[in-house]
């Protein structure tokens, strides 16, 4: 039986042959260079995949009214291109007659810095209230109180931004492709989201039971909260080891270059043989924030793919290959590899904390600077012609999203609460408890020469759909017990045959197009 990769290669070869024959018969000239057979050993023309993994945003929080922005004076204007499709956003009834305690409301650019909301596994389930999605203020709203220079109100959880603040993301959606039906793989915060990205499997946590002053980090052997990775010198609280495989193990077995690159991973000192991660910036709450957050680094949870002492690569030419760094790097190492002509085939990029978009210590404007500077630079590389950039998020932060996620994985632990105490359906016989999901809807965008243009995809996907794309594109196989087996495909966001998006360069501060600096 042919694998998915074999079928996709055959389809692309046949389509290319038909296009070439048509060009000869009609005298239309040659087939565009990028429409040929997939290069190398990939199932698609994508030979360089860059996943920019950001923090804590629900879909409605950034795209509630897309593509219609308010455009008040003094803020960057956003006007949708003709023919822009709508999304499953907040229509009039949800805006004016919402079942929550308050109606959703627009946050303008001056309100970019907000308090962090409650995004715990149990509380997020309670917010969806069996599908009514009407308990967000009571269960995940944060307040009243203060956080640094920020004042918190429980009703803030219903706030959303539009194209006058998240301007770059709306412009990327216009020019490339986005999904309005992609979900957190399970309910809960950052660490489970990061693990789902790289393995689709939050079961197999060790210790199997870990209760902290902040709640349960694991339940019945499954990671549901923000324990820190067991193999990291920079940990500062309880730790968990994840067992089983992750995508790094699969990539290593196949000889594919890869790396996780995170701001602040490079130590600022070594004390007693242990790395110290001391790099900081002032966050959006006015307080110093460490650039490196251990539980945002999923590969450090696994013995096989960790770099506990944060050792640097042995040379620039070894970045992406196995050496003392073991594929775990500082963000600066990624650009060193790019400048050296040594970009790995698969690269995960994690911003320093103050630019990762996480409410409280970051915000959409700080995030925009990181995204735009990164994407502008990637589009100028020789690898752009075979590249796809995926922008995705680790969790929703608890921000309101009106879409009840499809429950493809039931669970009945003491920490489940979607349909009442202990109830997110029933854990199937032989199933893995503590994985109630899908969780809340999250933004997902694809930026690539092969992205469909100004396109909104409604395919049901989740964080492990990115994992599945990697597995299929490099023919890696599946991970036991992973959500990858049921994950929806990202392929509908692409056109590998003839229609392709041009480059788009934006201003990092405003998110607006730089005049004359694109080739669309």
Short précis:
With 520 residues, this protein is α/β, with parallel strands linked by helices. Helices cover 21% and strands 17% of the residues. The two termini are 41 Å apart.
What attributes characterize this protein structure?
alpha/beta, disordered N terminus, 21% helix, 26 strands, Alkaline Phosphatase, subunit A, 11 helices, 3-stranded mixed sheet, 520 residues, globular
Task: Write the CATH homologous superfamily.
Answer: Alkaline Phosphatase, subunit A
Multimerization state: single chain
- Label the overall shape: globular
Report the major sheet.
Answer: 8 strands, mixed
CATH architecture annotation: 3-Layer(aba) Sandwich
**Low-pLDDT sequence parts:** 1-40
Q: How many beta-strand elements?
A: 26
The level of helicity is: 10-25%
Portion in beta strands: 15-25%
Question: What is the CATH class?
Answer: Alpha Beta
Radius of gyration: 22 Å
Task: Give the helix tally.
Answer: 11
**Total separate domains:** 1
Mean pLDDT: 92
Structural class: alpha/beta
What is the CATH T-level topology? Alkaline Phosphatase, subunit A
Mind sketching the topology for me?
Layout (H helix, E strand, L loop, with lengths): L3 H23 L21 E7 L4 H5 L28 H5 L8 E2 L14 H8 L7 H5 L4 E3 L2 E3 L6 E2 L6 H9 L1 E3 L2 E2 L6 H9 L6 E2 L3 E3 L2 E5 L2 E2 L4 E2 L9 E4 L4 H8 L3 E5 L6 E3 L2 E3 L3 E3 L5 E3 L37 E3 H9 L6 E5 L13 H16 L7 E7 L50 E4 L7 E3 L3 E2 H11 L30 E3 L6 E6 L2
Parallel strand pairs: 1-20, 1-21, 2-5, 6-23, 7-24, 12-13, 14-19, 14-20
Antiparallel strand pairs: 3-4, 6-22, 8-13, 9-10, 10-11, 15-16, 17-18, 21-22, 25-26
